[in-house]
Specification:
Elements (H helix, E strand, L loop, with lengths): L16 E4 L4 E5 L4 H11 L3 E2 L10 H7 L6 H4 L6 E7 L5 E2 L1 H4 L1 H6 L10 E8 L1 E2 L4 E9 L4 H11 L7 E10 L8 E10 L3 H11 L10 E4 L1 H8 L21 E9 L5 H11 L8 E6 L3 H4 L15 E9 L4 H17 L31 H12 L2 H12 L18
Antiparallel strand pairs: 1-2, 2-6, 3-7, 4-5, 4-6, 8-10, 8-11, 9-10, 9-13, 12-14, 13-14
Keywords: FAD, Flavoprotein, Glycoprotein, Signal
Pfam families: BBE (PF08031), FAD_binding_4 (PF01565)
Protein name: FAD-binding PCMH-type domain-containing protein
Length: about 425
């Protein structure tokens, strides 16, 4: 079998970040991490932020090009929604900005994946305003504490809350420290843009079943919240955000779904049954609510199409530390069965997926060519819905020879 030549561009040294307080913008080179961006903004302001993800070691280039979301998505949308300019090197070696590349190309890589259209070396982003005090909580509930009923109720509430609050539900299996049977734990984790004095009445009105009390809540500055997100104590030095080393490196498989109709309790219970299967190390999922700003932005404003009509997104995740092909196959087979089980309960025609959780189970390109439009559109419409056709047209215009390609890149018409 012949091997196609390829090369990898290492952008690690492109890490300069320039924050402009007068315009509330920043230029961020593509090799920077989210932690480095948060650090640079926090150095200049305690009330400016950027709406991106929680993992401080994630690179901005991949996050922004696929959409990028975090605790501010219902207030300010995605990271990609807040990109206002970029520097891109195209297949002909030209260095382009928004004006010289044109609006179509600028549209394409903000949520359509920068790896299909060129090399983005820097991003200009709008910074957003946050209050001097924010409040967080993480309330765990196990099955005997009505975790299933609470998640079922959460579905009715989460996407209808005011845009100043996001409550995500993180579900995992925990083992008894006394050697008893394992159980399911659901942790309701929240960011509220304000103080606890406003949060508690809001929760009592909208989600009293959770039983949130003052002792569950922690008030922080936005800077301290950046540390909290990264898993550090709030009194840690801000410098820890500059650490580019992931806190854990394991084998894993992830998949994603979008939910448009309420799941019945029986569907949740069926998921828990699969979490209890033997020889699966640490299954988990996170349910991230939509609503607020995400309902207001058009599906076609950028390639990322998952907007109004979605109650929440599910991220399924299973890591494993056991070595060997058998362990990998066992865990991958498990998450595929879970994904298959969820088919009746999630989005349909297409069954939508988030491009930043790349899932090669959905289909791959033949990198040597000969992939049909029908084949590519199967996974393309899951990621991009009706925006896929426009992405193909733009790819054909800017990279007709398909210089930039990978297993799930956008293909030009010449490749069909």
């Amino acid at each position: 079998m012949s091997v196609l030549p390829f090369f990898i561009l290492d952008l690690i040294n492109l890490r300069k970040i320039t924050v402009d307080l007068s315009t509330k913008t920043a230029w961020v080179q593509a090799g920077a991490t989210l932690g480095e961006l948060y650090y640079s903004v926090a150095e200049k302001s305690r009330t400016l932020a950027f709406p991106a993800g929680a993992c401080h070691t994630v690179g901005v280039g991949g996050q922004f090009s696929g959409g990028g979301y975090g605790g501010l998505l219902c207030k300010y949308g995605l990271a990609a929604d807040n990109v206002i300019d970029a520097e891109l090197i195209d297949a002909n070696g030209r260095v382009l900005d928004r004006k010289s590349m044109g609006e179509d190309l600028f549209w394409a890589f903000r949520g359509g994946g920068g790896n299909s259209f060129g090399v983005v070396t820097a991003w200009k982003v709008n910074l957003v305003e946050v209050p001097s005090t924010v409040t967080v909580f993480a309330v765990p509930k196990v099955l005997k504490e009505n975790a299933t009923k609470l998640i079922h109720r959460w579905q009715y509430v989460a996407n209808k809350l005011p845009e100043d609050i996001v409550i995500a539900a993180y579900v995992n299996r925990i083992n008894s420290s006394q050697g008893g049977d394992p159980t399911i734990q659901a942790t309701f984790s929240s960011l509220f843009l304000g103080g606890v004095d406003r949060l508690l009445p809001l929760m009592q009105e909208s989600f009293p079943e959770l039983g949130l009390v003052n002792d569950d809540c922690i008030e922080l500055s936005w800077t301290e919240f950046a540390l909290f997100l990264a898993g550090f104590p709030s009194n840690a030095s801000l410098d820890v955000l500059l650490d580019r080393t992931p806190q854990s490196i394991t084998s894993f498989k992830a998949k994603s779904d979008y939910v448009k109709q309420l799941l019945p309790e029986t569907a949740l219970e069926g998921m828990w049954e699969r979490f209890f299967e033997k020889d699966i190390e640490s299954p988990s999922l996170i349910m991230v609510p939509y609503g607020g700003k995400m309902d207001e932005i058009s599906e076609s404003s950028i390639p990322f199409p998952h907007r109004a009509g979605n109650l929440y997104k599910i991220h399924y995740y299973v890591p494993w530390t056991e070595e060997g092909e058998e362990a990998s196959e066992r865990h991958i087979s498990w998450i595929r069965r879970l994904y298959s089980y969820m088919t009746p309960y999630v989005s349909k025609n297409p069954r939508e997926a988030y491009v930043n959780y790349r899932d090669l189970d959905l289909g791959i390109n033949n990198l040597a060519g000969n992939t049909s439009y029908k084949q590519a559109s199967i996974w393309g419409r899951k990621y991009f819905k009706n925006n896929f056709d426009k992405l193909v047209r733009i790819k054909t215009e800017v990279d007709p020879a398909n210089f930039f390609r990978n297993e799930q890149s956008i293909l030009p018409f010449s490749s069909w």
